[in-house]
């Protein structure tokens, strides 16, 4: 028994800002939902089920906010599920929504992921002391900096590679009207001149904290057939590994490699660098671009930085990465993964506007979370999957 | 739809965890029990999904370290819902329906005793208007009970009869943290706690965890002589607005019931943390008088947050495995005053699949 075909027929996102003081949580979600429904040509009444995703409840200070949001999400009287898989949640949420269609249970599923970080204090929310756990209190950058340093040591990458990624993504974001950061004139030199925060991660190599949401409408084959421009789902995958283990490779986690292998197999892809036209990869700190390029199998191990350095991941490169500006330019954490998935779908529909990659017909959406231990990915294409 | 059955179930329901264990310490023995029941190792599990709550745990990412309980390497196909175990089971059931996997182990956990539960749950309310007023869970349930009494739908005696039956049935449940029936008159003579609720009308604060194993087709038959086939699953949510809902009704229960075939149900495990909520549920479900309700004692005798709904599924499954019943109904609830509800029918036969929304 195989999965039924499913496609993204509607995509909506908010304008991302540090503080969206003009909307409530409900208003933020509706901004994305209304755009996605308009794109899909559907009304809320026509939606069969709703899948909500966001990162920790403490980020907004509401326990299980989908309960109070039920009316405004249009979920009243419908099935509603709330997914939470750390930073990968936006991707996982899209995958759960897709599975409702792929299983043949629903035909039209609306999924929305959001984070309104300005409602609370993310640093506080991540710093609650937990019994029997070693407190880090270093923020995400402090947690990941040793991974980056380890990558540099292992790969022999020159130390300006991270700055190349940051300058590229911030320049791409100028073409994306929804992006949070529109930092004109960001160059490799200006990134390298920015303050060192967690050596080797500089200020301009980190993601912002954003308010924002993303929504997708995922439909069955028959519904998608009447859509002018569906993005067909060719493969979805989730993999997790435990936090505590001396043998974990946090630079290139096995869960990531396993997920990529399963994804490429599902999507019938044997050479990702040749068959994927563009990738939206979860890069909250610039050095994660070369790290994930290797882990995903776009390059050999230790070679990811060479692709970045060659300009291969630029908008006109061999594998454009984060044409939207990526997580480095907008990071509403719970939504960030779905934004990657949604941007990949926009690209294969040819609807990405100024940051459209010419001829993009097959794209990767990628998200990771926790201590580099939760992974969610999908491949979408302009054409129906053949396998 | 593929034939999918519940083939494993393990639970812990206790007044307080002994000491202050981590989730890992709590879950490892539950997984061991599931492996014992199925003859599997972790490598035989195709998909994992957990349910828990960051607010209950008092920290962000409460589920992250629970993954450690599964083991380390190799990584697993895994997800998490910020919901009760019953919805984690639903996600796993959907995953099996895609054909991607044949088996799943789902689990949930929560330590309600770590805080003041009724106050913690107030944080589920509309944050801009209701949370600042801090109406707690028990008070909201009191309003709901009063609404039903004022409408002439039930009275304090009917509520006490629910409690009396639950406390008596709980005498046979090793996991119940409150048990021992006396008489309806004796219960009615006890003092009010949150008028019109007495303490026995309210679920006790409970710590706990539970795990359920699902398997499709022949995989299920390999594990059990009498697998508990999931013949129908349906769940819906209502608006939260306490002032605009008719608190004596639960439209999402009615809607879910309409999607299923409840004819021939012999036993129903209803997730009713307050005695009058069982009365609401019975009315919405239209169950016949001879249906055995909550033979485990139900949530009134132990209500571990985020696993109590799924435990209802496990309790029905156990009775089908043993051959005591051939068809049962399990119900899970979430949100204040029965806002969100899930129904599952379980049967000794995989035929007659019903709606699954």
UniProtKB/TrEMBL annotation, chain A:
It comes from Nocardioides plantarum. Residues 243-373 form the Thiolase C-terminal domain. This is Thiolase domain-containing protein. It holds the Pfam family Thiolase_C_1. NCBIfam families: PRK08313.1. InterPro entries: Thiolase, Thiolase-like, Thiolase_C_2.
From TrEMBL, chain B:
SUPFAM superfamilies: Thiolase-like. InterPro entries: Thiolase-like. PANTHER family: ACETYL-COA C-ACETYLTRANSFERASE (PTHR42870), NON-SPECIFIC LIPID-TRANSFER PROTEIN-LIKE 2 (PTHR42870:SF1). This is Thiolase domain-containing protein. The lineage of its organism: Bacteria, Bacillati, Actinomycetota, Actinomycetes, Propionibacteriales.
């Amino acid at each position: 028994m195989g999965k039924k075909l499913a496609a993204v027929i509607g995509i909506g996102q908010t304008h991302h800002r540090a503080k969206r003081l003009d909307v409530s949580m409900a208003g933020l979600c509706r901004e994305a939902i209304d755009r996605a429904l308009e794109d899909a040509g559907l009304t809320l009444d026509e939606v069969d089920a709703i899948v909500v995703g966001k990162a920790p409840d403490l980020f907004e200070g509401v326990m299980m906010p989908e309960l109070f949001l039920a009316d405004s999400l249009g979920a009243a009287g419908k099935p509603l599920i709330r997914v939470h898989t750390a930073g990968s949640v936006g991707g996982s949420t899209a995958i759960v929504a897709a599975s409702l269609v792929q299983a043949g249970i629903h035909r039209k599923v609306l999924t929305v992921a959001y984070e309104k970080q300005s409602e609370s204090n993310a640093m506080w929310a991540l710093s609650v002391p937990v019994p029997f756990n070693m407190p880090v209190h270093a923020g995400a950058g402090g947690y990941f900096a040793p991974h980056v340093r380890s990558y540099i040591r292992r790969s022999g990458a020159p130390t300006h590679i991270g700055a190349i990624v940051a300058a590229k993504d911030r320049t791409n974001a100028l073409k994306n009207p929804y992006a949070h950061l529109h930092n004109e004139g960001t160059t490799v030199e200006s990134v390298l001149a920015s303050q060192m925060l967690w050596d080797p991660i500089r200020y301009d190599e980190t993601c912002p904290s954003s308010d924002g949401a993303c929504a997708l409408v995922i439909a069955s084959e028959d519904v998608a057939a009447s859509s002018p421009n569906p993005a067909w789902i060719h493969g979805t995958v989730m993999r997790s590994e435990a936090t505590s283990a001396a043998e974990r490779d946090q630079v290139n986690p096995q869960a990531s490699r396993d997920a990529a292998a399963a994804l490429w197999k599902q999507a019938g892809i044997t050479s990702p660098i040749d068959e994927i036209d563009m990738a939206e990869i979860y890069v909250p700190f610039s050095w994660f671009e070369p790290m994930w390029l290797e882990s995903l199998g776009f390059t050999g191990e230790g070679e990811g930085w060479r692709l970045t350095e060659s300009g291969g991941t630029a908008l006109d490169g061999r594998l454009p990465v984060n044409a939207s500006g990526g997580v480095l330019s907008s990071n509403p954490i719970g939504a960030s993964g779905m934004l990657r998935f949604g941007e990949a779908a926009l690209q294969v529909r040819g609807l990405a506007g100024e940051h459209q990659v010419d001829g993009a017909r097959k794209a990767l959406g990628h998200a990771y979370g926790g201590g580099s231990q939760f992974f969610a990915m999908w491949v979408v294409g302009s054409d129906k999957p053949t396998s | 739809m593929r034939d999918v059955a519940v083939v494993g179930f393990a639970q812990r329901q206790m007044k307080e965890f002994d000491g202050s264990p981590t989730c890992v310490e709590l879950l490892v023995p539950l997984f061991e029990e599931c492996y014992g029941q199925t003859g599997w190792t972790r490598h035989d599990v195709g998909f994992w999904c957990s349910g828990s709550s960051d607010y209950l745990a008092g920290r962000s990412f409460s589920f992250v370290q629970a993954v450690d309980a599964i083991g380390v390497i190799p990584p697993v196909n895994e997800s998490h819902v910020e919901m009760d175990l019953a919805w984690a089971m639903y996600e796993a059931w959907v995953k099996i329906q895609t054909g991607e996997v044949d088996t799943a182990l789902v689990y949930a956990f929560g330590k309600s005793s770590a805080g003041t539960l009724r106050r913690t749950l107030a944080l589920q309310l509309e944050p801009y208007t209701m949370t600042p007023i801090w109406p707690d869970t028990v008070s909201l349930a009191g309003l709901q009970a009063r609404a039903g009494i004022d409408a002439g739908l039930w009275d304090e005696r009917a509520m006490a009869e629910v409690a009396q039956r639950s406390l008596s049935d709980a005498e046979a449940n090793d996991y119940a943290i409150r048990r021992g029936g006396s008489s309806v008159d004796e219960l009615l003579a006890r003092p009010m706690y949150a008028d019109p609720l007495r303490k026995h009308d309210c679920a006790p604060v409970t710590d706990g965890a539970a795990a359920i194993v699902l398997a499709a087709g022949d995989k299920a038959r390999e594990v059990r002589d009498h697998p508990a086939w999931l013949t129908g699953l349906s769940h819906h949510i209502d608006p939260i607005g306490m002032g605009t809902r008719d608190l004596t009704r639960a439209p999402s229960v009615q809607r879910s019931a309409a999607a299923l075939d409840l004819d021939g149900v012999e036993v129903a495990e209803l997730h009713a943390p307050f005695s009058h909520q069982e009365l609401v549920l019975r009315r919405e479900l239209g169950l016949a008088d001879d249906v055995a309700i909550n033979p485990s004692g139900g949530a009134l005798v132990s209500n571990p947050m985020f696993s109590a709904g799924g435990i209802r599924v496990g309790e029905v499954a156990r009775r089908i495995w043993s051959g005591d019943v051939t068809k049962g109904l399990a119900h899970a609830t979430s949100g204040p005053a029965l806002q969100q509800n899930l129904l599952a029918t379980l049967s000794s036969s995989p035929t007659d699949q019903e709606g699954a929304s």
